[in-house]
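User: Just a sanity check before I run the rest of the batch. Below are the structure tokens for the first item. I only need the designed sequence back.
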């Protein structure tokens, strides 16, 4: 059975990388933790908010690799020597990935009341018009 993708269409030349990106995003194991919101503040600005209650700033890392925003959290387990009668709040780690479109830049991050806010801005590309000369064969 042959796998067919949208990048195999003859009018979409050079979109193989985008096809791989869509496939990678579909496979990324982004489970339901931590919950998050994505807001659009204006035509070109966005905010990703993650609920990271119990995490300190030093427990979190934000990286941008090949147009993929990766947010990781790792809590220290401080339960040594403590006896829990019920433990519903577990120290756990997470990784949340977001694929950013070309021209989207991370402009900042902040923590407020157990929420991690990551600010994004879509940069407007310059319009480039290029004239291609037609070579005459002799």
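Assistant: Here's the designed sequence for the first item:
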């Amino acid at each position: 059975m042959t796998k067919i993708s949208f990048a195999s269409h003859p009018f979409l030349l050079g979109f193989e990388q985008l096809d791989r990106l869509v496939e990678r995003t579909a496979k990324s194991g982004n489970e339901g933790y931590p919950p998050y919101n994505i807001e659009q503040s204006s035509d070109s600005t966005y905010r990703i908010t993650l609920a990271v209650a119990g995490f300190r700033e030093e427990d979190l890392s934000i990286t941008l690799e090949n147009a993929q925003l990766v947010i990781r959290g790792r809590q220290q387990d401080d339960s040594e020597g403590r006896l829990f009668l019920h433990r519903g709040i577990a120290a756990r780690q997470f990784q949340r990935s977001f694929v950013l479109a070309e021209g989207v830049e991370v402009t900042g991050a902040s923590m407020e009341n157990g929420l991690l806010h990551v600010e994004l801005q879509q940069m407007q590309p310059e319009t480039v018009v290029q004239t291609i000369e037609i070579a005459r064969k002799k």
